[in-house]
Amino acid sequence: MINKISFYFRSLVKKPFKVGIISYYYPEKENLNNGVAIHTYSLSRELTKLGCEVHVFARGDKNSKETQYLGEGKLVIHRINSDSKLKIKDGVLNKRIDYLVFDNNVINHVTKENVNEKFDVLHSHGWLTSGAFISKYFNDVKWIHTFHSVEKNRLKFMTPEEKKYFKIAKWIESNISHADALITVSNELKIEALQAYPVKKERIYTIPNGVDLELFNENKEVLEDKRILYVGRFSSEKGIDLIPKIAREILGENHEIKFEVVAPDKNQVIPPSLEKIKKEFEELEKQYPNRFIWYRESLSRTEIAKVFKKCLLYIQPSRYEAFGLTVLEAMACGKAVIVSDKGGLPEVVENAGIVIPLKTNLFVKEILKLVEDFKLRERYARRAIERSKEFPWEDIAKRTLALYKKVSGQEDKRKGIKEEDKIEIEPKIKLKNTNILNSIW
Q1: Where are the beta strands (DSSP E) in 61-99?
Q2: Chain CA centroid to CA 404, Å
Q3: Mean pLDDT of all residues in 55-71
Q4: 3-state helix, strand, coil in the chain (%, to 5)
Q5: Which of 147, 183, 334, 372 could bridge 381 with an S-S bond, Cβ 3.0-4.6 Å?
Q6: Non-local CB neighbours of 202 within 8 Å, separated by 6+ positions
Q7: What are phi and psi of 132, to 5 degrees?
Q8: Residues linked to residue 354 through DSSP beta bridges, in sequence order
Q9: Cα 171 to Cα 318: distance, rounded to the nearest angstrom
Q10: All domains of the chain in start order, with CATH
């Protein structure tokens, strides 16, 4: 109540900066671990604490609106019913149609709220850009889009069922050339976006994902056993189809190791071509009943953090990874990580873990090596914790707000502003493939 009253009186003195965040994914329950959902949830709350009026437009089972007051700002969550009600048996197609229903419906909801009080900026996330694109022009509002992947490239690493919609994804995503600014979550993704679409270099910025350091932090208790952990959805881009082979070799080689997989299959759309991976997991459960542990239901963020803290090391054999949020969360928990050299993973990890080519035999080799080498694990763990401290959500929100104000023409141009009070939009992190980046530019 106090925050609400304070916000009201501050608004009378000065209109708060009003942001419209558009994202199909936004946590309705604590156990939604989708990367875009985590990003938009954390970003929206931190922007609100900074004094913004933030409106989130996200998928919901029914149209609804919820208002919260955090810090000095106001957060309004608009749920948009996107159920096509077609009840198509093809789960992948049904999901794609729901995406398009949401993308259409968001235009009406954004426009209605803009009539109440004009937005300073719209900020879309994911590959659904048509609704944001049209809302920009209908309402004469500046529009920023965050790439969490280049969808037309990501689809190349997915199942045949998902690849069918390549042309639709490419067509929808092509709207981003009309955005007033673009954000990529890694420098590698910036290179990818510049190669994929005709966007100007001066309109694209790198602002990474953040990590909740209050939730994901070091567990100083002695580990009960040697657990190897993998977290990922049923998608070949995440390398989940490589996990059975890696697990089987590890469990056969070292009888002290336990292998944990967090890959929910209940109430999830699993492409038929990946059903065989589920069967392999079930076979591993039977063969190693106490050593192969598969979490088939979605875990809450708190439960995920506990699983990270109990593991010995974390692996991510992805084929396509724009950033690697689960890797960063594992690092924040002080875990040695082994990742493929794909996408933004090398940028996130740097020297705080092992980065290798995507070959199952190499993953097996490095896992067995780290399990036996306590000093090496500890060295990576210390580096991982320090590296994760460079990604607090508060800092990510400040950088994002600085970009909002730059795009909307509301930059802080006060004379004599202290150097430590200036916010740099792009973080000072090492660039990967700088020669390629320069040649594109």
Answers
A1: 64-70, 73-81
A2: 20
A3: 94
A4: 45, 15, 35
A5: 334
A6: none
A7: -70, -40
A8: 338
A9: 26
A10: 2-206 (3.40.50.2000), 226-388 (3.40.50.2000)
Decide: 114 and 11 in contact? Cβ < 8 Å: no
CA within 13 Å, CB half, 96: 17
Tokens of 413: 């141009």
User: Alpha-carbon distance 147 to 149, whole Å?
Assistant: 5
Mean pLDDT, residues 41-61 taken together: 96
Tell me the CA end-to-end span of the chain in Å, nearest whole number. 50
Tokens describing residue 348: 């996130």
Say if CB 169 and CB 151 are below 8 A apart.
yes
Flag whether pLDDT at 65 surpasses 50: yes
Q: What are 436's two structure tokens?
A: 């390629």
The total number of residues written for the chain in this structure: 441
Digit-coded pLDDT (tens) for 122-173: 999 998 899 999 999 999 999 999 999 998 888 888 778 777 878 888 888 8
Name the residue with tokens 């957060």. 75
Distance CA 322, CA 150 (A): 8
Q: What is the pLDDT of residue 165?
A: 79
Contacts of 377 (CB under 8 A, 6+ apart): 312, 313, 336, 370
- What confidence category does residue 81 fall into, taking pLDDT thresholds of 50, 70 and 90? very high
Distance CA 355, CA 342 (A): 9
CA atoms of 381 and 335, how far apart (whole Å) = 5
Q: How distant is the alpha carbon of residue 181 from its chain centre?
A: 19
Spatial distance between the Cα atoms of 360 and 170, rounded to a whole number of angstroms: 31
Among residues 271, 18, 13, the alpha carbon closest in space to that of 155 is found at 271
- As a whole number of angstroms, the longest Cα–Cα distance in the chain is 69
Q: Which amino acid is at 349?
A: V
Give the pLDDT band (50/70/90) at residue 436. Answer: very low
